[in-house]
Write a structure and sequence with these properties.
Helices cover about 0% and strands about 45% of the residues. The strands form 9 sheets. A 5-stranded antiparallel sheet has the order 24-22-28-29-30, with no helix packed on it. β25 and β26 form a beta hairpin. It is rod-shaped and about 200 Å long.
């Protein structure tokens, strides 16, 4: 018979069946004795002909002797002893915590023991119970003392199985809220970089190039954006932004790297020499730009002024003023630098020989073979005067038709006149 379990007591006050007694001569009475004394008889009977119950306080689980006595009216008595077993067949009481909140440790591994979700499970007939846990979705073969969770950021339902000392079990359920509260950490940040304009910066538009290093106990996602703020000369900066986030509830780790693109100007100017040329010859030379690098966008234009000469072999002088402008280098305010006319190694002492000027590192140089001489700062705005002398030794040519008719005589031949225009 099973014991009654209540208030920490595991005792049985269960029913004791009535014996089968016969007597051919007399009536009889039946008495039932337990280890706790005479049984409590059923239905208000004075004897145990209808059976009885174990008296208070009851018997714990075990095997006990029950003595039946039958006594007839003549005083004849016979006893029979039988064994009665009190057996625990009631499952234990399983009690689960309604919800358990777990924050993942730095390594992202969380071990949930069965006792963590136990809310006081017990069995009154056993001094202890065995606790096992599994995910609700797993099979019963997965019951174990604990479950391991790795980088889970969700709510899960766990099943707790409570087993008593007699092998009976019961289950209950608990919701486990697993939260990753370890935010992503910026462990290595690339510094601000500086490059020269004209350099290829396409690599900086890729997230993996010169990237920061983020660390986290679990997986995380990274969003990469770039903002290019560069003018038409290629000068400015690029902002590169990484945002690393794991749990949406955590603060994201952010790093912004700036790539400064600074001016760098390098170019060569080949200045033409003065010329003496025949009238109509346009091969007078010009300022040639070469080796333009960095942000250089050198532009060359010129304006001619004509002057008649009264002496010498040349009859005209064509003064050509070259304007050389690098708009990316010029500050927009400073007047143009008037480039000095140069007297080279030729025998004459006249200025206006050809020369090469080099702009590099913010300075303007004159290149003389393998040597350079500093002229001053490179401003990106210059003017140079070239003198072109024009010699004209040929007289004008008059080209007339073979015959000219100015008018047709009328009858009055004395009045035949007309105005003639002959182009030269």
């Amino acid at each position: 018979m099973p014991p009654e379990q209540a208030n920490g007591i595991c005792l049985s006050r269960g029913a004791i069946p009535a014996p089968i007694v016969t007597d051919n001569c007399n009536t009889f009475s039946i008495r039932i004795f337990t280890p706790l004394g005479e049984a409590v008889y059923n239905d208000g009977q004075s004897d145990g002909r209808n059976g009885g119950r174990i008296p208070a306080p009851g018997l714990p689980p075990g095997v006990y002797d029950i003595v039946y006595q039958a006594i007839d009216e003549c005083g004849n008595m016979r006893s029979r002893t039988v064994q009665m077993s009190v057996v625990d067949v009631t499952p234990p009481i399983s009690i689960c915590r309604g919800q358990l909140n777990i924050s993942l440790p730095p390594d992202g591994n969380a071990r949930i023991w069965a006792a963590d979700i136990d809310g006081g499970s017990r069995d009154y007939c056993c001094s202890s119970v065995n606790l096992e846990i599994k995910l609700q979705s797993a099979s019963d073969t997965a019951f174990a003392p604990y479950i391991d969770l790795f980088c889970t950021n969700a709510s899960i339902v766990a099943t707790l199985r409570v087993t008593d000392c007699n092998g009976f079990s019961n289950i209950c359920f608990s919701t486990i809220v697993v939260e990753d509260r370890q935010p992503v950490v910026l462990s290595q940040a690339p510094p601000t970089r500086t490059i020269s304009c004209g350099a290829d910066y396409s690599a900086y538009l890729q997230a993996s190039f010169d990237a920061p290093v983020f660390t986290d106990n679990c997986t995380f996602s990274t969003q990469f954006t770039t903002t290019v703020n560069v003018d038409s000369c290629g000068i400015g900066h690029i902002d590169r932004r990484w945002e690393a986030r794991d749990n949406p509830g955590n603060v994201a780790a952010v790093h912004v790297q700036r790539i400064n693109i600074i001016p760098a100007f390098a170019y060569s100017l080949d200045i033409p020499a003065d010329r003496t040329t025949q009238c109509g010859d346009e091969n007078t030379g010009t300022v040639l730009v070469s080796g333009a690098d960095g942000c250089s966008q050198v532009q060359v234009s010129y304006v001619d002024s004509w002057f008649r000469l009264s002496s010498g072999t040349a009859c005209y002088e064509r003064r050509r003023t070259f304007t050389i402008l690098n708009p990316c280098e010029y500050d927009g305010v400073t007047p143009p630098v008037l480039l000095e006319r140069y007297d080279g190694s030729d025998p004459d002492l006249n200025t206006g020989d050809s020369t090469r000027l080099i702009s590099e590192g913010g300075q303007l140089y004159r290149q003389l073979g393998t040597q350079r001489s500093l002229l001053g700062p490179s401003t990106g705005y210059y003017q140079y005067l070239q003198v072109i002398r024009i010699v004209d030794t040929l007289p004008p040519t008059i080209d007339l038709p073979s015959s000219l008719t100015f008018c047709v005589p009328s009858q009055d031949t004395s009045n035949c006149s007309a105005e003639a225009i002959i182009p030269l």
